[in-house]
Amino acid sequence: MNSFLKSWMNGGNSIMKYLSVRMKKYDLRSILNGFELDSQSLHFHSGIEIRRKSDGKVALIRMSGVRTFSMYVWPDWKGLPYPVDNPNQLS
């Protein structure tokens, strides 16, 4: 997952909007190893948010259940911006 996220951060999988993977086990530290996570790229709402610098796309990463890794990407499949970037979308 770490290699996949690094590829996405470098512009790979540019049309991906959603990914869900069941894993045998996961360690969030290993998945995020090598990422520079600061107050601009990481927020804790209902997951971990990372922003791609090249085009501003945002991914929300959730670890749910015992072994499920999910990644949601904005702009979403409807072309809507990330809800935090557009407060009117939250209502």
Task: Output the radius of gyration.
Answer: 13 Å
**How would you characterize the largest beta sheet?**
4 strands, antiparallel
Q: What's the mean pLDDT score?
A: 78
Number of domains: 1
Alpha-carbon distance between the two ends = 33 Å
**Order of strands, widest sheet:** 1-4-3-2
Q: Please give the share of residues in helix.
A: 10-25%
Kindly name the structural category: alpha+beta
Count of extended strands: 4
Low-confidence segments, given as residue ranges, are: 40-44
Percentage beta strand: 25-35%
Number of helices: 2
Envelope shape:
globular
SSE ordering: HEHEEE
Give an account of the 3D structure:
- This protein has 91 residues and is an alpha+beta fold.
- It has one domain.
- The chain contains 2 helices and 4 strands.
- Strand 2 and strand 3 form a beta hairpin.
